[in-house]
Write a structure and sequence with these properties.
The complex is a heterodimer of chains A (93) and B (321). Chain A is mainly α and 93 residues long. Chain A has one domain. Helix content of chain A is 55%, strand content 5%. Chain A is built from 6 helices and 1 strand; from the N terminus they run H-H-H-H-H-H-E. The longest helix of chain A has 17 residues. Chain A starts with 11 loop residues before the first helix and ends with a strand. In chain B, strand 9 and strand 10 form a beta hairpin. Chain B contains 10 helices and 13 strands. In chain B, the strands form 4 sheets. In chain B, strands 1, 5, 8, 9, 10, 11 and 12 form a 7-stranded mixed beta sheet that branches. A two-stranded antiparallel sheet of chain B has the order 2-13. In chain B, strands 3-4 form a two-stranded antiparallel ribbon. In chain B, helix 3 runs antiparallel to helix 4 and helix 4 runs antiparallel to helix 5. Chain B is an alpha+beta fold and 321 residues long. Chain B is 40% helix and 22% strand. Classes of the chains: A mainly alpha (93), B alpha+beta (321). At the A-B interface, helix 2, helix 3, helix 4, helix 5 and strand 1 of A face helix 4, helix 5, helix 6 and strand 12 of B. Strand 1 of chain A pairs parallel with strand 12 of chain B.
Chain lengths: 93, 321
């Protein structure tokens, strides 16, 4: 016989996740009617960012391939000067 | 005699309504690129019926960042709340109420989805920005979206009015004791050293450097550019510094006199030559088909039916600092 422990009641955030509309749906709605769903758009975008961050290595490799054709990516330039340590590309005079 | 009714525009001389005496970087840039293009876009205020996707995207990105920092600094709102407010604003700004549908840019890289994605990712990245926005003026106004006007020292030979540079700075911020004017740009290209190099020389950033010093008394270490690379599958961000030496500024101001003289000559004679070497620049001039038309009558018909009009008046900014 299943118990409540086998079927835990979802937390509100989890519930929200389950009931969340897709980005496509959200983007097709009049923003005036979005109400609290606006939070879902932000959440979707944050998830996209996290997903991309987990594949960052793949993207870096792709950019490195570009450097062989003469395009210098900012990631390389970042190590050039002290300003670069702050997240800047090398100063351009 | 103007072929089109000219709208009230405070940036033009009252003595000669073809002569713009208050110029922002866009006006000056248009004239430098091509006097005829300047006539159509600034004097008459024509613009293509369909606004450039890059312009719309850039304007909304600026607006998003402006709203965000106003909420954070003026209203002391936490990041999460400010972010939601910004997303809401931009979602509304990209909704076509008349047609009851979202803005359709017809561009894979720059569209409503990538705009919202860029805004969220950018603000997440810079929510704890090490750059501290400074306060300026007697009112200690937060240095965000600062309108400026600077007398150039050049006067019109025909009306005696002084030519004035005007515009708006995004923000003045401080980092490790140095001050910077900040700006944000979006591009579809990979961002690297070469990408930032394209801003030297650059009309807009030179004016910004002069404005920071002359209007707000802030000696800046340069323009700090937040570059947003926006492509279909991701947005990525880098920061770069663009600088000007005193000699570069002096040279630019000296050359400004040359362009103002040309501007006055065009306005006085109502003669606006085409720079036919610039027709293919910046993805192609939006007025190319007008200049290509065989007669003045056809040109005027094209302008009337294929373009919409607006008033480009950089003096409309309130100088309330």
């Amino acid at each position: 016989m299943p118990t409540n422990d086998d079927y835990p009641i979802p937390q509100s955030t989890a519930l929200r996740q389950v009931n969340r509309m897709s980005l496509q749906e959200l983007f097709s709605l009049d923003p005036e009617t979005l109400g609290e769903s606006i939070h879902d758009i932000v959440a979707h975008m944050q998830e996209l960012r996290e997903r991309l961050a987990s594949t960052e290595t793949v993207r870096q490799v792709r950019i490195k391939k570009d450097t062989t054709t003469g395009i210098v990516p900012s990631r390389t330039a970042k190590t050039v000067s002290s300003a670069a340590e702050l997240g800047f590309v090398k100063k351009v005079q | 005699m103007l072929p089109f009714e000219q709208f009230e525009n405070g940036s033009f001389s009252k003595a000669n309504n073809m002569l713009q005496t208050h110029l922002d970087s866009s006006s000056l840039n248009e004239f430098k690129v091509c006097p005829r293009r300047y006539l159509y876009s600034i004097v008459y205020g024509f613009q293509p019926a369909q606004e450039s996707v890059h312009l719309t995207f850039g304007t909304l990105l600026h607006r998003a960042v402006e709203i965000y920092w106003t909420y954070r600094l003026d209203r002391q709102m936490p990041h999460k709340d400010a972010l939601v407010e910004v997303v809401q604003e931009i979602m509304k700004a990209t909704w076509d109420k008349e047609r009851n549908r979202p803005w359709d840019s017809d561009n894979k890289a720059k569209n409503r989805f990538t705009l919202i994605r860029t805004v969220v990712w950018y603000l997440e990245k810079y929510q704890d920005d090490p750059i501290q926005t400074v306060r300026v003026g007697a009112s200690e106004r937060i240095a965000v979206e600062l309108p400026f006007r600077i007398g150039t020292g050049y006067k019109s030979a025909t009306t005696g009015e002084e030519f004035v540079l005007c515009g708006r700075l995004d923000r003045i911020g401080e980092l490790n004791g140095a001050r910077y004017v900040t700006d944000i740009k979006s591009t579809q290209h990979t961002i690297g050293e070469y990408w930032f190099a394209k801003f030297t020389p650059n009309n807009q950033f030179t004016i910004y450097t002069i404005a920071a010093r002359n209007t707000f008394g802030v000696e800046t270490d340069g323009i700090l550019v937040d570059a947003c690379q926006v492509v279909q599958s991701f947005s990525t961000f880098e920061r770069g510094i663009v600088q000007r030496t005193d000699k570069q500024l002096e040279e630019w101001l000296r050359h400004l006199g040359f362009f103002l003289e040309q501007l006055e000559s065009c306005a006085f004679e109502d003669n606006w030559p085409m720079n036919d070497s610039a027709c293919g620049m910046y993805g192609g001039c939006p007025f190319r088909q007008v200049c290509a038309a065989p007669s003045e009558q056809t040109r005027n018909l094209l302008l009337k039916h294929e373009y919409k009009r607006r008033v480009w008046d950089p003096t409309l900014e309130r100088l309330d600092y």
